[in-house]
Amino acid sequence: MRKFIQISDKKIGKNFPVFVIAEASANHMQKFANAVKIIKAAKKAGADAVKFQTYTPDTLTLNLNTKYFKVKHPQWGGQTLYQLYEKAYTPWKWFKKLKKVADDVGIVFFSTAFDKTAVNLLEEINVPVHKIASFELVDLPLIEYVAKTKKPLIISTGMANVFEIKQAIYTARNSGAKEIILLKCVSNYPANPKEMNLRTIPHMSKKFGVPVGLSDHTLESAVSVAAVSLGAVVIEKHITLSRDVNATDSFFSTEPQELKDMIKDIRLVEKALGRVNYGTVRGEAKSKTYRRSLFAVEDIKKGEMFCEKNVRSIRPGYGLAPCYLNQVFGQRARKNIAKGTPLTRTLLKSSSSKRKMEKNK
Questions:
Q1: Which whole-number Å values give the CA distances from 292 to 40, 305, 316, 347, in the listed order?
Q2: DSSP letters of 245-273?
Q3: What's the confidence (pLDDT) of residue 355?
């Protein structure tokens, strides 16, 4: 596996910052001004990229009202697929303008292509990466066509079994895609956190030999943050200007401030993950003082024997380590020792015992 995948000026991989994608989907409500606001809100929240979807009702389905084309969903039901997509799609004449807005504010812009004509449009405006949606993972001719652009390819894996994922990766690689990222995904809207199975992320990365991220449709930000701790290198989250508006996908999307808070938590987790480390870190150095050590807990006269009555393991840590307690018992004091004095080797009368403790250190 390559150490990183380059998308625009961003490096994506194990040792690089998590690549956060704000998915605009249909939350612009087909108002260009809203789409612009979403791009700027994503940038302000700290997202690395903003993503749209490139389709029309006619490129996705047929305008029929038969049982096969009726939507069955608590939020989207009562209409046909064509009617749903008619209200949700992003007008294609916007894409060039939206990319310029994104370029101007400094955020990566790309889109999910749902057919060859969508790929052609996105290639015309030179997006730096292409995305395959979970529902299109089984559309191998589309994956083949996208892969021929030789640009990085992000593939969501909602509903897909191991064989289907292998087929998609094989098709992409054989068609020219050298850089592939998989996104663990549950294609339910909203998704239930109990069904996310985030432990699949490291397993997926090892099994398929590619970087893995998460496309998160849950209402919570904790799921995305947890995914980062399991090795996710990309997080995709839907963004809406407000869940109070009647946008097609707003009911399961995150608001700008929530996205900002989530990204803040992700960046904190990145720092906390650090590296494999045992022993004292810089911030703990002073704390070592408050470990236990051996102290005189009573006044001890010169020549007096150390025992449980006059020596104990207590805090702080200025004396001998507690592991020497049994070796100290039975030895005698080299000089008078005041109560509260940390016990050191120089206070022991027997030089042979001191050498023994030094050897055992």
A1: 55, 22, 5, 18
A2: S--TTGGGPBPHHHHHHHHHHHHHHHHHH
A3: 55
Q: Let me know if 77 is exposed, middle or buried by CB neighbors in 10 A (0-12, 13-18, 19+).
A: exposed
- Tell me the Cα Rg of the chain: 31
Structural domains of the chain in order of their starting residue, each with its CATH number: 5-273 (3.20.20.70), 287-354 (3.90.1210.10)
Spatial separation of the C-alpha atoms in residues 61 and 96, rounded to whole Å: 25
| Alpha-helical runs (H) found in the chain | 32-45, 57-60, 81-88, 95-105, 116-124, 140-147, 162-174, 200-208, 222-229, 256-273, 325-328, 351-360
In angstroms, the CA 341 to CA 294 distance is: 9
- Residue 55's closest CA among 32, 84, 20, 33? 84
Q: What dihedral angle (degrees, nearest 10) is formed by the CA atoms of 200, 203, 204, 209?
A: 170
**In this predicted structure, what is the pLDDT of residue 9?**
95
Q: Give CA–CA dist 155/183, Å, rounded.
A: 6
Lowest mean pLDDT of 223-227, 311-315, 357-361, name the range: 357-361
Q: Which pLDDT belongs to residue 352?
A: 54
Report cis status (omega within 30 of 0) of the bond before 316: yes
* Average pLDDT score over the chain: 95
- In the structure encoding, which two tokens stand for residue 166, read together? 């292998």
> What's the pLDDT tens digit per position in 143-166?
999 999 999 999 999 999 999 999
Cα separation, 264 vs 14, in Å, equals: 19
Q: Is the pLDDT confidence value at 351 over 60?
A: no
Predicted local distance difference test score (pLDDT) of residue 150 = 98
Percent of the chain with pLDDT over 90: 93
37-57, pLDDT tens digit by residue? Answer: 999 999 999 999 999 999 999
Rounded Cα–Cα distance for residues 327 and 352 (Å): 11
199 and 173 in contact (C-beta within 8 Å)? no
Q: Give the mean pLDDT of 217-240.
A: 97
Helices 200-208 and 162-174 pack at an angle, to 10 degrees, of 40
DSSP string of 309-327? TTEEEESSSSSS-GGGHHH
